[in-house]
Amino acid sequence: MSGIMMTLFAKSASSSPTPGSIYFPTTSSRITLSPGITLSSTYQSPFTVEGWFYSGDTPGTDSGPVLLSTDTASSTPAYAKALTINVVSTTQIVVDSNGATATTFNLAQTLVAASWYYLAVSRDSSGFMQLWLGKQGDASAAASTSGRFNCNADTSGWALTGLSNCIGAFVPAGRYSATDYISGIRVTNTNLYITTNATIAMPTQTFGYVPGILFLQSPTDLSDLTGDQTLTSVGSAAYSATGPSIDIQTYVEPTTVSFTSTGTTSWTAPAGVYTVEYLVVGGAGGAGNGYDNAGGGGGGAGMVRTGNVAVAPGTSYTVTVGGGGAGGADTRTNNPGSPGSNSVFSSITSLGGGQGLGSRTGGAVGAAQIGSSTAPTGGAGTGGGTGGLGGGGASGAGGSNSGATGGTGGAGTASSITGSSVTYGVGGAGGGAGAPTTDGANGTTNRGNGGQGGKSNSADSAKGGDGGSGIVVVKYGPYTWYEAFGTTLAISTTQYVGATKIYAYSSTFDVPSYQNAVIQVNDVEIVNTGNRGHTMVVLSPSGATISTNWYDTYDAVTGPANLTALANALNGVASGNRVVLVVYDASAFNAACRSALTIGYGDTNSNTWTASRVSQIFVGVKS
Prior knowledge:
Layout: E1 21-23, E2 30-37, E3 47-55, E4 66-68, E5 84-87, E6 92-96, E7 102-106, E8 115-123, E9 128-135, E10 140-143, E11 149-150, E12 164-168, E13 180-188, E14 199-201, E15 213-216, E16 230-234, E17 238-240, E18 255-259, E19 263-268, E20 275-281, E21 290-291, E22 304-310, E23 316-321, E24 343-345, E25 348-350, E26 413-415, E27 422-424, E28 461-462, E29 471-476, E30 481-486, E31 491-497, E32 500-508, E33 517-521, E34 524-529, E35 533-539, E36 545-551, H1 559-571, E37 578-585, E38 587-589, H2 591-601, E39 609-612, E40 615-621
Parallel strand pairs: 32-37
Antiparallel strand pairs: 1-13, 1-17, 2-12, 2-16, 3-8, 3-13, 4-5, 5-6, 6-7, 8-9, 9-10, 9-11, 10-14, 13-15, 18-29, 19-23, 20-22, 20-29, 21-28, 23-24, 24-25, 26-27, 30-40, 31-32, 32-33, 33-34, 35-36, 35-37, 37-40, 38-39
Helix pairs in contact: 1-2
């Protein structure tokens, strides 16, 4: 999650599950999307479709499930060449452009009934398409054994210009049975996965917002979280309250705050926010001037730092956006630029970039950033008839000149914190020598890019470009709680709460080769227990262990009293402290314990159970 904590929860796949999957009770059941999704304009336009499906009978026996399709026959122009993804057998899935062309992907594993599977189909910008599939509980999803499909073989058929507007049955030949379910579909116009990868990671949570998103099925109702599509039930398709459920989680879309004006201000962490992701870019150095048939050196880029840092709700943090340095003056003498200014967020400082030197100073190319200790430096000028040397960048040194041509600026660092990939901290290019005399270009504002060296003809001079200003970006979402359950499958999770990394593992006696319950905090094991029932750990906001207690909630005699003690312990946790619950072997969880999680931690699950082989993980922050 890149350090961004979102509200999330997981639901059980037990015999009495909570809602979380779309149910198709008849062979014509489907969910239609309006206005529908057009995936691509050419056979090389990238896309990704991914989601979960469950088939209660032998997969493929009813020509389903269908993850995405069209509600109208392929003969209708608007719906021709619409993408369809159809499970046709226990070993094959067909990806079809609604009758125009199709390919069959052979699966790396054989599908079995009454199981959840994750499916992803992605095409890259070269026209290669791959499919991956994994069963719930697998460590990864495996690529098709038939390899990538080359859409260049049918450039017309694989230009997916038609409207995909249906989850469920083909129309008019409806093919769904009452045992098929779908959950968590995401569609983007980007290839989220490299098509040459033999495996991709299995999702550990339902899908969130990503660049290029076109459709994101809500985990709690029949709606599109992007707001672009209206979902309509046909043939009684609906969310099932009694069908099987995959992990379902509730999202709070991360908030991104960008500080772009130079100078110092402050930011106060909102309630419930304990960790933020940051981008801090220093102001870049100004470039050196050019004079007398020589180019000035490029300015050094501003330092680029990214990562995550702990914050405390209600606390104010200093934010400084560094300005870019001025370029060297337009006179016939060596005039270096000025260094850029530092940018700051909380304890994170990104240093300003170094100054570029005048055209006849002599020296070296600009050096790249070194960690958090040394900012990129500016380039030098090398004398008459030659271009200036490039300024250093966040990820690379500046380039050497080539005769009268100035050297290139050093490479920057890309970040997608604002929702799209942007490169920051590019070094300024060296100025050229000769006619026409040209002032150096300024570095891009709020990118921390170095100024360009001035370019001068004989008996003339040119100003060096100013360095670009820096930027500070803070991204956050409130962390509240995580909960998961299991019966015959082990469950585990890694959660980041503030600066604390929490790993938890839980399993029951019904899990093959079941193991002790485990809790790790910042990679240090603090619980490894074979004690039946619940173990509860309370952590401080800094991650220090406050208490560890065991409650045998399964025992026929002592279980009721232990459940009361557990509920009281949950209620008694101090505000802001963290709670981690794990189960070993078997447990019970009553209304008093559920109420404690609802009132004290905001948990919206409702599951309770009497003494049985049910595992549980809960991670939360006491309100």
